[in-house]
């Protein structure tokens, strides 16, 4: 995701410079390129220096993203007299990542902090020039690609809808002539060709400083819209300030952390799956079925970057943290470095999240459907059931290509005494899980809650199949694994 955002921001800078060159933007195209380059460099070097001083690993993509965002909302002016404020803006933003930290996590969006600090200390606020009309189509396309990747459509929709409602209400309270259709059309036009679109599609959705849970994401978006509406008449930098206040809300609701894990051992779990057992610097609380963001800095990384989301495959009842993942013939540079890790090597984890967890009611009947490495959350859940001796009525369908691909079979066998029944499907021999198989193995399937975990195409296929079987959306929980794109069918 970070690499995608970086490329799209570079594209916006290049597009803006090109539009200026042909006279569609009133700004200087050279200044646009120069300020983007300079701010990116300042953010990158500041990030590198602070990381070295504080002895933490860096993520260069994050710093470059902050620099490019700042260049798109400040100026675009570039001159010797402007170098000092431009430098300060970048330094302000990067410093906030290292000095305003709780539980190892920075709280504020760096670009928003840099912009706000500049307005308060230097008296130079953001111009938000990126919101000029000619840039609108490119912002919308870029924003759609970002939302498609991170799946935060609800958050952006909540923000834009809230802004529309607030603007309409403001017009009504201002006793303007009332024509709802005309008013909504004018407000929608304003949203699409104003800085608010760039703000919503690029800054609002920033994953490290926004809520993880969808319900909180909607609340977060509405809160920021309200803050912007009421602060707008008080301070000139209300958009940036609103985001910073929202970041505090996000930090409180996330209750997350950032820390280092130390590798203690690794083991080959199957022909293509390796398990890595890490010891946390400080034991943390989580629920079985949740995930972490894992950061493994390394040189010459490929386009997939240095971060991944992986399920915690171990139970909270275990002392070590298990990462189990599948390795293909030509793995990413991230997985190449991961595979070469040796005991005492370190990896960084953060952003604990996920709602793919057991219901509190022990009497709720469940069906688990796992495809390949999608078994990891069910391994964590099953180990928790074993260690806590929880009686649960669960039927697990575990699909693999061959017998040799099966992992954690011993744990599922032990859990039979507490109500787990496992149905193994070897697709090369048996075909795929389909409606007929579920009907035969789970006669009361309409009374159960379904948990689906695996590659995204598989999760989508089963979600559609269950819907045709009469299973309500409220009865289905999904946990797809991005990056695993092999095709899947629910037909035999």
Give me some keywords for this one.
alpha/beta, 492 residues, Elongation Factor Tu (Ef-tu), domain 3, 17 helices, 3 domains, six-stranded antiparallel β-sheet, Rossmann fold
Explain what the structure shows.
The chain has helices at about 1-20, 30-55, 60-75, 85-100, 110-120, 135-150, 155-175, 180-190, 195-205, 215-230, 240-255, 335-340, 375-390, 410-415, 425-430, 435-440, 455-470, and strands at about 100, 105, 260-270, 275-280, 290-295, 305-310, 320-325, 345-355, 365-370, 395-400, 420-425, 450-455, 475-480. With about 500 residues, the protein is of the alpha/beta class. It folds into three domains: about 1-255, no CATH class; about 260-355, Translation factors (Elongation Factor Tu (Ef-tu), domain 3), CATH 2.40.30; about 365-480, 3-Layer(aba) Sandwich (Rossmann fold). Helix 2 packs parallel to helix 4 (about 85-100). The longest helix is centred in the first third of the chain and has 26 residues, at about 30-55. The protein is globular, with a radius of gyration of 25 Å.
Q: What is the H/E string? A: HHHHEEHHHHHHHEEEEEHEEHEHEHHEHE
Envelope shape: globular
Which stretches are low in confidence, meaning pLDDT under 50 for 5 or more residues running? none
The structural domain count equals 3
Kindly report how far apart the N and C termini lie: 35 Å
- Backbone structural class: alpha/beta
Percent range of helical residues: 40-55%
Cross-sheet strand order for the largest sheet: 6-5-8-3-4-7
The number of helical runs is 17
Main beta sheet strand tally, sense and closure: 6 strands, antiparallel
| Mean of pLDDT | 88
- How much beta, percentage-wise? 15-25%
Please tally the β strands and state the result. 13
Radius of gyration: 25 Å
């Amino acid at each position: 995701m970070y690499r995608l955002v970086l490329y799209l921001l570079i594209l916006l800078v290049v597009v803006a410079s090109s539009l200026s060159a042909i006279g569609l933007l009133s700004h200087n195209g050279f200044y646009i390129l120069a300020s983007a380059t300079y701010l990116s460099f300042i953010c990158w070097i500041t990030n590198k220096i602070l990381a070295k001083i504080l002895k933490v690993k860096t993520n260069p993509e994050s710093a470059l993203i902050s620099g490019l965002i700042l260049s798109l909302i400040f100026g675009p002016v570039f001159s010797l007299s402007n170098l000092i404020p431009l430098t300060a803006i970048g330094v302000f933003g990067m410093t906030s990542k290292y000095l305003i930290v709780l539980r190892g996590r920075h709280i504020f969006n760096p670009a928003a902090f840099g912009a706000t600090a500049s307005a308060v200390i230097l008296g130079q606020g953001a111009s938000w020039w990126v919101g000029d009309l000619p840039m609108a189509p490119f912002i919308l396309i870029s924003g759609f690609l970002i939302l498609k990747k991170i799946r935060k459509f609800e958050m952006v929709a909540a923000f834009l809808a809230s802004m529309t409602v607030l603007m309409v209400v403001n017009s009504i309270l201002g006793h303007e002539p009332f024509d709802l259709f005309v008013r909504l059309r004018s407000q929608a036009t304003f949203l699409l060709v104003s800085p608010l679109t760039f703000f919503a599609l690029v800054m609002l959705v920033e994953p490290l400083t926004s809520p993880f849970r969808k319900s909180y994401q909607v609340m977060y978006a509405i809160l920021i819209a309200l803050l912007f509406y009421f602060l707008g008449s008080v301070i000139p930098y209300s958009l940036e300030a609103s985001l910073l206040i929202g970041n505090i809300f996000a930090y409180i609701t996330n209750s997350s952390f950032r820390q280092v894990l130390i590798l203690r051992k690794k083991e080959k779990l199957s022909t293509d799956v390796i398990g890595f057992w890490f010891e946390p610097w400080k034991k943390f609380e989580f629920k079985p079925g949740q995930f972490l963001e894992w950061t493994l800095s390394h040189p010459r990384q490929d386009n997939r970057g240095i971060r991944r989301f992986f399920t915690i495959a171990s139970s909270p009842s275990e002392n070590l943290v298990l990462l189990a993942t599948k390795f293909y013939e030509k793995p990413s540079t991230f997985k190449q470095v991961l595979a070469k890790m040796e005991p005492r090597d370190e990896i960084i984890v953060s952003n604990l999240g996920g709602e793919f967890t057991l219901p509190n009611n022990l009497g709720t009947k469940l069906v688990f459907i796992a495809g390949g490495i999608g078994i990891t959350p069910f391994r964590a859940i099953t180990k928790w059931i074993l260690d806590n001796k929880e009686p649960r009525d669960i039927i697990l369908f575990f699909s693999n290509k061959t017998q040799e691909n099966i992992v954690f079979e011993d744990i599922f066998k032990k859990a039979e005494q507490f109500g787990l029944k496992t149905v193994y499907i070897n697709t090369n021999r048996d075909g795929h899980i389909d409606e007929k198989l579920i009907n035969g193995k789970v006669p009361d399937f309409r009374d159960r809650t379904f948990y689906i975990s695996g590659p995204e195409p598989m999760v989508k296929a089963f979600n559609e199949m269950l819907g045709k079987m009469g299973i309500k959306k409220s009865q289905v929980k999904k946990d797809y694994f991005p990056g695993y794109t092999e095709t899947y069918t629910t037909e035999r």
